Amino acid sequence: MGMIADTLNSIHWHIKQINEFDVYSGNSTHSLHNNYVYRYALPFEKIDDPVGATLFLQRYWYHSITISVVYFIIIKLIQRFMRDREAFVLKRPLVIWNASLAIFSAIGFIRFGEDLVYSVFNLGMYRSVCYTVHPKGVAAFWALLFALSKIVELGDTLFIVLRKRKLIFLHYYHHVAVLIGSAHAGAEHAAPGRFFITVNYFVHAIMYSYYASTSYGFRPSKYTFIIHYSLTHIGILVQNLKKKKKIKCFISKIITSILCTFA
């Protein structure tokens, strides 16, 4: 009984740690961030209330897990529904879907990547890894869109099951891990996320362009797809390892430096 009690206490402690955030704690409105200001910014590329948005994520980030569970159940139900039915073709919707996500990812890479380039070349690696983006700026806006896009990208799986294509575990893991990781990282303003977001935007721009072209009927070299798809999962590794309470900032710096080397 003592061992069971210790195990339950350990689980409770770890869950509590996951839900404790340093950013804006104790009614503070201070966060450790860079002050880079974009020279060109559209009127909507901003976060008017970063404190409110962050506190909202801190209170409800765990619903990313809820969404993931519901997503898994729905996909399994659709697979069961499609078991004895003809596969849908969905050529035009698939082209539009992939092309839209490719364009979004390319724009996100260009807009968010500007902050990364400035940070690395003007502020150095330490501030790039340990200081987050300006909470009201353009990069914060595109970081928020990045997190929200991970919910939208769950739709990828619908096309797979409705077309009765093979669905592998890595597909589930990719979508669920990035969704949950992005929600939690946003809640704590995880600074190394600027590397992950930039790389993920870039890789998805390539990936979805590849998917759009193949769904249209044109098939480019598979090697291009394999290389960049692998980079996505290197990014997932960084996302899962960069929790501030578990890994010191200098370790995150090493990991993200390796990521940038391979990218």
Structural features:
263 residues; mainly alpha; 10 helices; 72% helix; globular; disordered C terminus; ELO_CS; fatty acid elongase activity; transmembrane helix; Elongation of very long chain fatty acids protein; fatty acid biosynthesis
User: In this structure, how is the largest beta sheet organized?
Assistant: none
What's the N-to-C terminus distance? 50 Å
The SS-based structural class is mainly alpha
C-alpha-based Rg, rounded:
20 Å
How many DSSP helices? 10
Give the tally of structural domains. Answer: 1
List the helices and strands and how they pair.
Elements: H1 2-18, H2 50-60, H3 63-82, H4 91-130, H5 138-152, H6 155-162, H7 169-188, H8 193-216, H9 222-241, H10 249-262
Helix pairs in contact: 2-7, 3-6, 3-7, 4-5, 4-8, 4-10, 5-7, 7-9, 8-9, 9-10
